C-alpha cells in the first residue's frame, strides 16, 4: 500500500510541475538556419524582360554581385550602375546598354544593332549582328557566328565605379579589348573591327535621362576614365617603345595614373597596360643585370606594366620618373620603384596574362 500511495503523490507533483524545455506539450519556435536568415531575392529585381522604348536601370548597390538577365528588349536605354556576377543579353534589338563590372561573363546572344559599354572578366557573342562595344575585358573577347562587331576601349567614370571593379575582382589595368578571337571566321571576310579612334562614347550610349538614374555622377571625359584608354592593336606611330614597371606599394595605382597622364600630355601613346604577378625568372629576363635589385620587391604583390610608344619615349619616361616622382615625397616610396628601358630594343614590350595566370613575355 505504501508503494501505491507513493506513486500517487509523485503523479500529482508531476501534474503541478511545468514541462521542461523540449518536452512534449510545449510549442517550440522553429530552428533558424543561416540560409533562412538571408534576405529573400526576387528574380524579377535582376531582370529586364520584354521592354520596348523604355529607359531603365539599377543604381549602385542595387545589384550587389547578383546575376542579371536582359532579354527581348527593343529600342531601350539600359544602365546597370553596379557590379554583378554574370550577365546574359538575349534577343535584344536597337538597345543602348551600360554594364558595370561583371565578375564573370557577359554573353550576348541573338542581338542586333545594339551599342554597349561593358566591363567584365569574359566577353562573348553568338549569333549577333552589328554591335558596337566599348569594352574592358580581362581575357580575350570571343565572337561566334557573329558579324559586323566593332570594338573600342572602355571609357567611363562615376564615383562608385573604382570600388565596383575591386568588388568584381577586376583590375583596371588588365584590358584586352582589341585582342579579339573569332571562333567562326569566314574566308575573305572580317567579322569584327575596331571603332574609329575618334568615336565618342556618349554617341554610343547616351547619358540617362531618367531622374532616378541622373543621380549617378557620370563623366565620359577620357581623362577621367577609370580604365586607362589604350591603343591596343592599332598601329603604333613609332618604332620606339618604352616599358615602365611599378612595383607593389601603397600608391602604385595612383602613381601609374600619374605617369600615364604625364606621358600623354607629352603626346606619347599608351599602347597597353597589365597588372600581373612577376616571377624571379621574369625579372631576370626583363631587368637583366639589375634583376637582383628588384627580385626582393616581387613578394609585395603584382606589378603594373605600362607600354608607351613614340619617338623619344624612353628618354621622356625616364625624365618624368626623375623630375615628377622623385620630387614628390608621397610618391617616393622604396617599395614603389619605377624603371624604364634605357635601350630602344627592350626585350619585354608585350605582357600577356593567360587564363591560368602565367606571365608570358615575347620579343619585338
Automatic annotation (TrEMBL):
Residues 1-33 are annotated as: Disordered. The keyword Nucleus does not apply. The lineage of its organism: Eukaryota, Metazoa, Chordata, Craniata, Vertebrata. GO terms for molecular function: GTP binding; GTPase activator activity; magnesium ion binding. Belongs to the NDK family. GO terms for biological process: post-Golgi vesicle-mediated transport. It is found in: Cell membrane. It comes from Sarcophilus harrisii (Tasmanian devil). Keywords: Cell membrane, GTP-binding, GTPase activation, Lipoprotein, Membrane, Myristate, Nucleotide-binding, Palmitate. A lipid is attached at residue 2 (N-myristoyl glycine). This is Protein XRP2. Residues 1-10 have a biased composition (Basic residues). GTP binds at residues 104-105, 121-124.
Amino acid at each position: 500500500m505504501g508503494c501505491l500511495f507513493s506513486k500517487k503523490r509523485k503523479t500529482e507533483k508531476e501534474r503541478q510541475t511545468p514541462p521542461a524545455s523540449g518536452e512534449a506539450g510545449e510549442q517550440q519556435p522553429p530552428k533558424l538556419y543561416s540560409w533562412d536568415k538571408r534576405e529573400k531575392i526576387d528574380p524579377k529585381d535582376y531582370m529586364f524582360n520584354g521592354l520596348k522604348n523604355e529607359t531603365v536601370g539599377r543604381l549602385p548597390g542595387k545589384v550587389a554581385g547578383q546575376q542579371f538577365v536582359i532579354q527581348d528588349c527593343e529600342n531601350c536605354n539600359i544602365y546597370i550602375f553596379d557590379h554583378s556576377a554574370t550577365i546574359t543579353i538575349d534577343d535584344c534589338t536597337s538597345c543602348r546598354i551600360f554594364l558595370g563590372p561583371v565578375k564573370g561573363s557577359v554573353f550576348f546572344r541573338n542581338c542586333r544593332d545594339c551599342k554597349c559599354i561593358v566591363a567584365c572578366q569574359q566577353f562573348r557573342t553568338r549569333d549577333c549582328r552589328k554591335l558596337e562595344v566599348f569594352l574592358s575585358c580581362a581575357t580575350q573577347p570571343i565572337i561566334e557566328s557573329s558579324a559586323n562587331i566593332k570594338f573600342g576601349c572602355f571609357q567611363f567614370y562615376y564615383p562608385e565605379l573604382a570600388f565596383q571593379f575591386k568588388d568584381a575582382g577586376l583590375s583596371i589595368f588588365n584590358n584586352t579589348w582589341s585582342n579579339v578571337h573569332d571562333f567562326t571566321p569566314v574566308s575573305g571576310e572580317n567579322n569584327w573591327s575596331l571603332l574609329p579612334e575618334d568615336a565618342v562614347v556618349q554617341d554610343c550610349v547616351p547619358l540617362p535621362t531618367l531622374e532616378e538614374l541622373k543621380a549617378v555622377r557620370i563623366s565620359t571625359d577620357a581623362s577621367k576614365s577609370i580604365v586607362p584608354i589604350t591603343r591596343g592593336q592599332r598601329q603604333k606611330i613609332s618604332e620606339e617603345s618604352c616599358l615602365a614597371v611599378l612595383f607593389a606599394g601603397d600608391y602604385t595605382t595612383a602613381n601609374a595614373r600619374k605617369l600615364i597622364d604625364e606621358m600623354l600630355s607629352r603626346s606619347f601613346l599608351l599602347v597597353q597596360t597589365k597588372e600581373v604577378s612577376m616571377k624571379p625568372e621574369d625579372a631576370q629576363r626583363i631587368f637583366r643585370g639589375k634583376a637582383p635589385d628588384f627580385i626582393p620587391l616581387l613578394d609585395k604583390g603584382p606589378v603594373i606594366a605600362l607600354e608607351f610608344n613614340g619617338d623619344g619615349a624612353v628618354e621622356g619616361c625616364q625624365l618624368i620618373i626623375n623630375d615628377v616622382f622623385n620630387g614628390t615625397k608621397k610618391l617616393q616610396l622604396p617599395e614603389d620603384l619605377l624603371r624604364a628601358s634605357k635601350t630602344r630594343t627592350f626585350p619585354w614590350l608585350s605582357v600577356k596574362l593567360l587564363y591560368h595566370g602565367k606571365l608570358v613575355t615575347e620579343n619585338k
